């Protein structure tokens, strides 16, 4: 009898222990929920308020130059708050714009332990192919609730490749025709008796008139991009660039790919650029010296540059630092022609494959969009010290920039700066009205099958074509040898592969209503 | 008789206890001394390590500056006649610009490297901010100089020119500039504050100290007069400074390329008192 009772007692003890262990591990009948896909992400211990228990340093790469106030803000107010709310310290490494791509890629390829970085959407596919970044689906599902709540679902499709998400499209705002407009110093334009820019000739007249008044002004900032600004006037076909390097395009009417470098259009663009270099609109002393180029813009000496839908608002603070009377406005050449949305967000936040704290990187991004208060805090700083809200607009109290507003601009939280004209804000808000979705929306060229040829192609392009693009070498003098070198590097093979992948992409897309085939 | 027994008992007890008490006292004193020495040594190592890092950073900028100074491309840009062809000029400019950016981006230290060509007004620099390079450079070439200007903020700067600028007003063809903003130093002082040092700051007699972001500036201002005295005495050993609100052990070490001292202080406990005293 006693023996049976002891036996029964032992079994009870065993069962109790088993149940307790099971409950603690989250399995068995007392588990809190059923296992799901998110469990593939390693979980962090959290306190009652959901703050991770381990303190970490989150290393992030940012483009540009850190302002004095940003450095002070990160070291003090921001990190103090991030310690409390996310138990992390943010460590920013700024890489100057002029060298951003090369230094970023050096850091990624050598496996430096950064946790987060920003770049343009066109680079996502390349970095995925090179194994620099990691998929974010599970992290987003587990830690990105406010990102998915505040960024439209369609925007995420842009960064999906092979069924996985590779970047967070951080900006959620108007974007049609991005980088195909010109941003102009409106105050200077009006000072020489002009009202608006509609043609290439208008730009040249603006420069000539302004230069006659004060030769210290120079014309144009970007020389290695912005060819599509001119396309709106020079081409009778609506084209959209397919690649960041400006070699291939798509005809939005027919959906066909265009071999741009071998087209008549390229020759026309080269002639305009050469004319600009001769007349001084492109300053030969500044090409090749990007930091000085930007410096001149900061000094208020720039007449126009490539627009970006909202650049007239973004750059106003800089322009007014140099000249309090400065006003900016964006124009499209041939404004009646349609605009296309190739990427609803050109801004992509990626987590490196070798990041030490990917969960915390996702939590940090989510934190930014968690509330308007967080959003304002990281972008504008301390209310009353760095900014004030006046009549629903932001009044900046410091000239130093903190987190770039454009990186995280969001329709839900956006407030216009009080210094920006209402007309500029209206341009921006109405930019996407009647815009069309581009044929290349969601297309990513996988360079892997032709990566050797593509690398050679870029080297030849930079050596032979860039001098033509910026107008310091004539098309007639250099083009034949340049295209021959490009062909030798494997241009035709890359072109064939691109056509193959694009055809497969188009076959998988629903037909575009309202667009010719 | 009774007292004799009591006395004997006391003696019998004290005799074995006396060496034990003496041994205990000796051991305690030795432990206290060793502990104090170890604490001082550890603190000293931390100070020396950071001073070494800072010194290395500035020395690195020195060498980058010399490399640029010796570069053929950098020199050729000073003489536009050598670069008559637009393409050659573009390529030379791009090469120098890329080289400057590459050098400035090595390591985690952030400084500005630039080449200034006064005759053509051209500036090639690693940082595109308007005030990255001061509009007025030092009158003469020299090693790290600390400057505070209302519009440019505070920074360390060194210049080397071709031909060498040894007197004010001399014309040069080019000047290679290296500059580190005070903010970078503050940021790193704040960083090491969380990694072992108590409240580090940079100090040079005659200048305002460079504090970390959360420094106890009032206390440091009280410590400063003592540091001046010590400097005059020519001694930089760890020392004790007595103030009305406590006694502080102070470490200081010179950052050779700058001529500034890294100073850190710790509130002293009683066992540290045997160290050298200043008053």
From TrEMBL, chain A:
Q: Which residues form the DUF3502 domain?
A: 440-507
Extract the PROSITE patterns matched here.
Answer: PROKAR_LIPOPROTEIN (PS51257)
The record's Gene3D superfamilies line, in alphabetical order, gives: Periplasmic binding protein-like II
Q: Which InterPro entries match?
A: Bact_solute-bd_prot1, DUF3502, SBP
In terms of Pfam families, this protein maps to:
DUF3502, SBP_bac_1
Q: What is this protein called?
A: DUF3502 domain-containing protein
Organism name: Gordoniibacillus kamchatkensis
From TrEMBL, chain B:
Top-rank taxon of the source lineage equals: Bacteria
- Which species is this UniProt entry from? Gordoniibacillus kamchatkensis
Q: Supply the name of the protein.
A: Cache domain-containing protein
């Amino acid at each position: 009898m006693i023996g049976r009772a002891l036996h029964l007692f032992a079994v009870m003890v065993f069962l109790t222990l088993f149940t307790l262990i099971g409950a603690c591990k989250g399995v068995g009948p007392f588990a809190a929920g059923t296992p799901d896909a998110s469990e593939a992400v390693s979980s962090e211990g959290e306190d009652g308020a959901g703050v991770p228990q381990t303190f970490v340093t989150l290393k992030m790469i940012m483009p540009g130059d850190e302002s004095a106030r940003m450095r002070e803000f990160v070291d003090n107010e921001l990190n103090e708050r991030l310690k409390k709310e996310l138990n992390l310290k943010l460590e920013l490494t700024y890489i100057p714009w002029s060298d951003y791509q090369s230094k970023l890629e050096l850091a990624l390829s050598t496996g430096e332990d950064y946790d987060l970085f920003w770049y343009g959407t066109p680079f996502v596919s390349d970095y995925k192919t090179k194994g620099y970044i990691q998929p974010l689906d599970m992290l987003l599902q587990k830690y990105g609730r406010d990102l998915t709540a505040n960024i439209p679902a369609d925007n995420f499709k842009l960064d999906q490749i092979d069924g996985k998400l590779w970047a967070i499209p951080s900006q959620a705002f108007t974007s049609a025709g991005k980088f195909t407009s010109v941003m102009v110093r409106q105050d200077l334009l009006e000072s020489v008796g002009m009202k608006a820019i509609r043609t290439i000739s208008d730009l040249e007249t603006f420069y000539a008139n302004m230069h006659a008044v004060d030769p210290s002004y120079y014309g144009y900032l970007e020389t290695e991009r912005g060819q599509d600004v001119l396309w709106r006037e020079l081409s009778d076909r609506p084209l959209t660039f397919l690649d960041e390097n400006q070699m291939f395009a798509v005809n939005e009417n027919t959906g066909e790919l265009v071999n741009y470098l071998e087209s008549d259009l390229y020759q026309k663009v080269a002639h305009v650029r050469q004319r600009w270099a001769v007349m001084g609109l492109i300053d030969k002393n500044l090409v090749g010296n990007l930091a000085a180029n930007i410096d001149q813009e900061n000094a208020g000496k720039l007449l126009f540059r490539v627009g970006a839908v909202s650049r007239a608002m973004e750059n106003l603070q800089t322009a007014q630092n140099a000249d309090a009377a400065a006003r900016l406005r964006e124009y499209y050449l041939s404004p009646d022609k349609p605009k296309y949305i190739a990427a609803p967000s050109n801004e992509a936040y990626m987590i490196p494959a070798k990041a030490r704290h990917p969960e915390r990187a996702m939590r940090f991004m989510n934190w930014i969009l968690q509330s308007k208060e967080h959003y304002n805090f990281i972008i504008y700083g301390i209310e009353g010290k760095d900014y004030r809200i006046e009549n629903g607009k932001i009044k900046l109290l410091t000239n130093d920039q903190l987190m770039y507003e454009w990186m995280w601009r969001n329709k839900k939280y956006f407030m216009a700066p009080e210094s920006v004209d209402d007309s500029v804000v209206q341009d921006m808000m109405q930019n996407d009205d009647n815009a069309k979705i581009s044929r290349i929306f969601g297309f990513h060229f996988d360079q892997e099958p032709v990566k050797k040829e593509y690398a050679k192609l870029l080297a030849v392009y930079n050596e032979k074509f860039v001098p033509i693009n910026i107008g310091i070498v004539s098309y007639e003098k250099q083009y034949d040898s340049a295209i021959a070198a490009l062909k030798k590097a494997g241009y035709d093979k890359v072109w064939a592969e691109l056509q193959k992948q694009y055809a497969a992409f188009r076959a998988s897309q629903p037909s575009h209503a309202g667009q010719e085939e | 008789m009774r007292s004799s027994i009591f006395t004997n008992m006391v003696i019998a007890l004290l005799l074995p206890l006396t060496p034990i008490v003496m041994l205990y006292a000796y051991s305690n004193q030795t432990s206290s001394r060793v502990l104090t020495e170890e604490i001082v040594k550890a603190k000293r190592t931390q100070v020396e390590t950071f001073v070494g890092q800072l010194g290395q950073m500035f020395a690195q900028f020195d060498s980058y500056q010399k490399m640029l100074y010796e570069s053929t491309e950098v020199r050729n840009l000073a003489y536009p006649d050598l670069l008559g062809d637009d393409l050659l000029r573009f390529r030379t400019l791009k090469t120098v610009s890329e080289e400057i950016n590459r050098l400035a981006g090595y390591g985690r230290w952030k400084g500005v490297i630039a080449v200034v060509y006064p005759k053509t007004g051209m500036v090639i620099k690693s940082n595109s901010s308007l005030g990255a390079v001061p509009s007025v450079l030092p009158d003469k070439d020299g090693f790290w100089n600390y400057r505070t200007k209302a519009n440019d903020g505070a920074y360390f700067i060194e210049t080397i020119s071709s031909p060498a600028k040894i007197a004010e007003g001399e014309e040069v063809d080019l000047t290679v500039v290296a500059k580190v903003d005070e903010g970078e130093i503050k940021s790193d002082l704040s960083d090491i504050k969380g990694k072992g040092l108590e409240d580090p700051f940079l100090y040079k007699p005659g200048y305002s100290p460079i504090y970390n972001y959360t420094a106890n500036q009032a206390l440091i201002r009280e410590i400063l007069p003592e540091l001046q005295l010590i400097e005059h005495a020519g001694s930089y050993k760890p020392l004790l400074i007595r103030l009305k609100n406590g006694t502080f052990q102070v470490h200081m070490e010179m950052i050779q390329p700058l001529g500034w001292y890294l100073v850190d202080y710790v509130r002293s406990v009683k066992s540290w008192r045997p160290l050298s005293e200043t008053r």
